[in-house]
Amino acid sequence: MPVMMGTSCGYLFTSCAFLLTVSLCLCELTCREGHSGPTHESLDDVFDKKSYRPAVNLSTPTITNISFTLYAVLGVNEKTQILTTFLWLRLYWFHEFLIWDPEKCDGVTKISLPVKELWTPDIIIYEFVDDDVSQACPYVYVNHTGHIRYDRMLRLVSACNLEIFSFPFDIQNCTFTFGSYMHTIKDVRVSPALSFAEMSGNSKQYLEASGEWELVVILGEASILQFGIDEWDIITFWVVIKRRPMLYVVNLLIPSSFLMIIDILSFYLPPHSVDRASFKMTLILGYTVFLLIMNDLLPSTANGTPIIGIYFSVCLALMVISLLETVVITNVLHTNSTKYREVPHWVRVVILGFIARLICYRWPEEITAVVQDKPDNSGPRAIQPPAQATQAHQSRNMSGALPLAVPELTQICQDVSVIRSHISELQRASDMMDQWCHVGYILDFLLFRIYLMLITCYAVVIICMWCIWIYQ
Length: 472
Hints:
Blueprint (H helix, E strand, L loop, with lengths): L1 H24 L14 H9 L13 E16 L4 E13 L15 E5 L8 E3 L13 E5 L3 E13 L11 E10 L7 E5 L3 H12 L5 E15 L2 E14 L2 H20 L8 H20 L13 H32 L6 H14 L6 H9 L12 H13 L8 H64 L2
Parallel strand pairs: 1-8
Antiparallel strand pairs: 1-2, 2-6, 3-5, 4-7, 5-6, 7-10, 9-10
Helix pairs in contact: 4-5, 4-6, 5-6, 6-10, 7-10, 9-10
């Protein structure tokens, strides 16, 4: 056993010494006279060792510099919480075996080499949830100092915690975490290649004409990810994007506001008309169809409901309340007036008195005289029935107070009394109907102003909330 262990150690020492000698010899590429750039033979030696990290001293980590440009926001799926973007990613690292002297290589300072023939850092984005389907760049640029630049296009499908409560004035903050997949902090270190302000400026130039979203800022921070006893060097970028709301304002908010204005104007229809309730029912039906058509434009998640969805629901509820108000007024005007019911005392005091003065209701002159002159505890003026009038007439004749009349005149007297009684009854019914109509009008004016106040307060609150989110 000692002999075998000594033999193994000798082989290991010999192999390490050989690799170290080869590595030191390959630190600078050779150039042949009459050729531009390093020779193919020296490059083939590097290509043969593409599986190994290009460091002479393996205890020294390879530093990878990262920068990217956000070129486009391809899609935001609120239901699945997925953000799809298109990035121009640029990686820099140092290859210690790809160094040559430009003076010996006909002044060549930079060459392009196939990326599949070189070692590349396994930098990934930790938030990715789907494979990259973009076209890969097959080449890298190598500087004579050994610094490599690798540009690639990246269609990134990443997970993002999307907040949609303030839709369509929402601002999303998504994270892109760059780091090595396998190499720990002892082998690969990462750092930003550009400042975050430069990355933000470059991205804004391309994202200005990119449809629905605009870039606010790109921030970042380098940190260490620890999992068990191993540590990984990572960079976390915060990409803050803001939605352009004009599409949703034109297609959602403005039509909804028009329908609400029409519902408000419907209060100017006569309250006693049946067409008013039919018009409001048709308006509710049209608003429901509008919501069904526009449902695809609204984001939906299991975490919450956007405020615009609450806005539409409240608008629909206000329309239903408006219809119920019309039903109540119609019931007051038709049910009580057709049954010739007397207006109760408390209704005259509360509605015809207090509420009418509160809303500055203008009374017609004849109704004002009737309401003010008529005592509260008195009923309608009694009309003497025809039978009682006939008996009084006959009693006066029998007592000799009035001369006896011929039967024709007596019949005429009875008919006139009947006509007078009927006209008095019609007048009484007309007076009661007018009073109930004014009760309905006063209630209609009161409920309309309450309804208008609710809509105004609701609109002010919604506008203020959206303005706060826009300028935050």
